């Protein structure tokens, strides 16, 4: 079993409510979200339909809409919510400490 690896992704002030930003780490891309309730989440950064950056998408409450074909995912769970997406997003644990957002990968 490997140890948890927490990576600093951004500051809490870097993301407005109902918004998303891109976070690259190594050879991977993640999306870091802040919902309308101020909660932070993280997922893979590409849409599972055609590998388009979700950071260019629209956050509506706790849903992210892909900017390419308007497929939607539930942000907290990664569940595919609207066609054409049918494969769920991988999501990652998030913690907030001292004004910084960390994800566990």
User: What general form does the structure show?
Assistant: globular
| CATH level 1 name | Mainly Beta
**Number of structural domains:** 1
Biggest sheet strand order reads 2-3-4-9
* Uncertain parts: none
CATH superfamily: Rieske [2Fe-2S] iron-sulphur domain
Helix-strand sequence: EEEEEEEEEEE
Instruction: Please report which band the strand proportion falls in: under 5%, 5-15%, 15-25%, 25-35%, 35-45% or over 45%.
Output: over 45%
Domain Rieske: 7-103
Cofactor: [2Fe-2S] cluster
Family: Belongs to the bacterial ring-hydroxylating dioxygenase ferredoxin component family.
Organism: Cohnella zeiphila
Structure explained in plain terms:
- Belongs to the bacterial ring-hydroxylating dioxygenase ferredoxin component family.
- Its cofactor is [2Fe-2S] cluster.
- Keywords: 2Fe-2S, Iron, Iron-sulfur, Metal-binding.
- InterPro entries: MocE_2FeS, Rieske_2Fe-2S, Rieske_2Fe-2S_sf.
- There is one protein chain.
- With 105 residues, this protein is mainly beta.
- It has one domain (6-104): 3-layer Sandwich (Rieske Iron-sulfur Protein).
- 0% of the residues lie in helices and 46% in strands.
- The chain has a four-stranded antiparallel beta sheet, with no helix packed on it.
- A hairpin with a 6-residue loop joins strand 6 and strand 7.
- It is globular and about 40 Å long.
- The two termini are 13 Å apart.
- The mean pLDDT is 95.
């Amino acid at each position: 079993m490997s140890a948890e690896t927490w990576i600093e992704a951004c500051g809490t002030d870097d993301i407005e409510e109902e918004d998303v930003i891109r976070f690259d780490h190594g050879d991977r891309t993640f999306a870091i979200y802040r919902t309308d309730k101020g909660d932070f989440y993280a997922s893979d950064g590409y849409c599972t339909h055609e590998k388009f950056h979700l950071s260019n998408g629209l956050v509506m409450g706790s849903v992210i809409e892909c900017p390419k074909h308007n497929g939607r995912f539930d942000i907290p769970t990664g569940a595919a919510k609207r066609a054409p997406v049918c494969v769920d997003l991988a999501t990652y644990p998030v913690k907030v400490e001292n004004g910084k957002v960390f994800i566990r990968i």
